[in-house]
Design goal:
Layout: E1 2-6, E2 12-24, E3 27-30, E4 36-38, E5 44-47, E6 51-57, E7 63-65, E8 71-76, E9 81-83, E10 86-87, E11 89-91, E12 103-109, E13 112-119, H1 133-146, H2 151-161, H3 166-173, E14 177-179, H4 216-226, E15 233-236, H5 248-261, E16 266-271, H6 276-286, E17 289-294, H7 299-306, H8 313-325, E18 329-336, H9 344-357, E19 361-366, H10 371-377, H11 388-398, E20 403-405, H12 412-415
Helix pairs in contact: 1-2, 2-3, 4-5, 5-6, 6-8
Cofactor: [4Fe-4S] cluster
Organism: Paenibacillus chondroitinus
Domain Radical SAM core: 181-351
Amino acid sequence: MNLVYSDSQGNVFDHPDFLALGRNAEMITEIMEDELIPLPEGATLVSLPFTRPVGIDAETGDMKLVPGDYHAVGALLPQGFTRLLLPGYVKSDKTKALPLFGYTAVVWKDDAFYVAARLTDNPYFWNPIHCDVTELESQVKTLTAKYPENRLYAHLSNCALGYECLTASNTFLQRWEGAVPVSYSCNAGCFGCISEQPDESGFVAPQTRMNFKPQIEEITQIMLEHLRTPDSIISFGQGCEGEPSTQAALIVPAIKQVREQTKMGYININTNAGLTDHIRGIVDAGLDLMRVSTISALDDHYNAYYKPRAYTLKNVEKSLRYATDKGVITSINYLVFPGVTDREEEIEAMIEFVRRTGLKLIQLRNLNIDPESYLGIIPKARGELLGMKQMIEIFEQELPDVVLGSYSHTPKFYASDRNTTMVL
């Protein structure tokens, strides 16, 4: 398997004299054949700035930097695929941070690109090729004209057309999981926040956070427009907002008003679940689905990344347990990173957390972060490093009643034969 690299203009090549390597956190490692799958449809190859590619010299068997002014290359995977290894690289400028993306090891073999990844959910629904731009532009015009005073539709139109956010696009295409952002504030200071970064962080937030407080009517208009089919999902908590439960005073009456008019579809919240009292009110208002973001079930790791304000991981657990007990289908948005998530202590803690909260789904999400910056803020490994592939296999064995996936699903998904929908 040949090393893949790029020149300073971003042109991508494979190197006939170097074998590819990957990274598991700080450790450069061999890529095994059973860790590779063909480059998925919808994936993107990107050059990693400020890096040098590392590989095995095929002639000598030594680990070396590729000579010349070249950069490492990684793949950005679509939803439905979980990264197993980072690209093999070292930084040429350690003061610079990589943009906030989830870089995956990529190789060239058998005349094709392969990535160190695993299929964990059906990628169809989140493949950008299924979003017709012409149809999307037409629908944006239709709904913004129908609701000219609705600032949320105006905001989401930029998310859909400017940022190419698929959830926002679904809102206009009136299908699958749509977005209804509500919050300009947050009760956490996530290290890798994609909508708000302090100037001194060194990161550039890839999205702009909403900067207004919507009216209940604006929220209900979007919800009622989207909840028109039995399988539709409308979701609070998007990448362009803060923590939605901080606006429980808007969400609770909005849910109640919508449910007075229609029982169609499902209402979801993507949340950090730290505000347990607010979550209880939202659940009691008629919530159907809840996805809770977490990076660890260990307090020190969780706190280092989320920087929670006036809540703890114990509050998160209480919120999940309450929602589960009330019949809400609960899941976690598990931000995973090779060399960290697959540590022995992380796996053990997460298994116990899942058992205590009774959730039904672990959504494995590749953490978008500069690896060196992330590794610099979290605790050092305390146990053995097992590898992402083995971590997934352990979850499957120890949590047989919990689904491993990549995104939210309607209730019928859990009663169906999920293997029939897992296609490349």
